[in-house]
Amino acid sequence: MTDPYKVLGVGKSASQDEIKTAYRKLAKKYHPDLNQGAANVEVRFKEVSAAYDILGDPEKRRQYDRGQIDPDGRPRSGAGAGAGAGAGPGAGSGPFWRWARRDRGQARSNFDFGPDFGDESDPIEDVINAWRSGQAGAGPGGAGAGPEREPGDPRRSTQDLRYRLKVPFLEAVNGVRKRVTLSDGKVVSLTIPVASEDGKTLRLKGQGKPARNGRMAGDAYIEIAVEPHAFYQRDGMDIRLDLPITLKEAVEGGTITVPTVHGNVNLKIPAGSSSDKTMRLRGKGVPGPPGVDTGDQYVRFVIVLPDKPDQALQDFIAEWKPPAGYNPRHKLGV
């Protein structure tokens, strides 16, 4: 292999942090999972990874600088014994065998290469190390050897996990960002989109069952189970509500407060309103996702009498005479 300093593009006086920064930049540039179909990326990625395997380890770097090991990590003939010196390729001294031994974790499918990552949890390094581990395991005698794969074929695991999540009605309608604890105890950040319906399935990439040998972790599929509401009912993008009103409000009319999924609004009841009369509140239904109009809310009046007998009302009804020809059941033919 070429001089690892040249491969990473750093000088021999570079600090370990500078070496790591150079490596991460090149590893991202040539990672096979991020450059599928591009020519020679896997070869370059291996060169970059092998170079960092030497220079990223302070002890190996010292051995290389003293001429004790070559760019492939093999002891040079006649070189003084150092850490790992005298161990031939069959004993696991080369960089790829080291990757097989350490197997630091599984790859992630939701790559996050933002600027804020710490030493304890490093997304790109997890991906790179897992991919490298898979390459080593496919070689002869590699620890945990698995089936061979063609270059640029980072096989995914099929170990997906499925969950069913109960979501309150209003959260499903209006959408929400929340942290939820799944049935296996895993805590994830989840966005419930606006207008989510019962049975809608959300996919969390890389949150499934971990996989080894360089394969990608499975995905988690969250099926939404919308909980029923105490008084709202959803009808497509519309909301339906049975609204209790008093006999006085039905006879005389008036302005009352009505709840909606967006908050309370005022509604004017026309005088002489019967039970089952329905009014529309435009734009007070299910919020529309991009490109879809917000639905409406339909309010159906339900006349409700007092729970306890009201003597004054009974006296009034006893004296009240329906107008001539009045028959509320005439539509039934009786």
Provide the β-strand percentage band. 15-25%
Task: Write the H/E string, N to C.
Answer: HHHHHHEHEEEEEEHEEEEH
Structural class: alpha+beta
Instruction: Report the end-to-end length measured between terminal Cα atoms.
Output: 99 Å
The unreliable regions are: 80-157
Total helices: the number is 9
**Shape designation:** rod-shaped
Which strand order does the major sheet show? 6-7-11-10
The biggest sheet amounts to: 4 strands, mixed
Descriptive report:
- With 334 residues, the protein is α+β, with helices and mostly antiparallel strands.
- It is built from 9 helices and 11 strands.
- Strands 6-7-11-10 form a 4-stranded mixed β-sheet.
- A hairpin with a 6-residue loop joins strand 8 and strand 9.
- Helix 2 runs antiparallel to helix 3.
- The N and C termini lie far apart (99 Å).
- About 23% of the residues have low confidence.
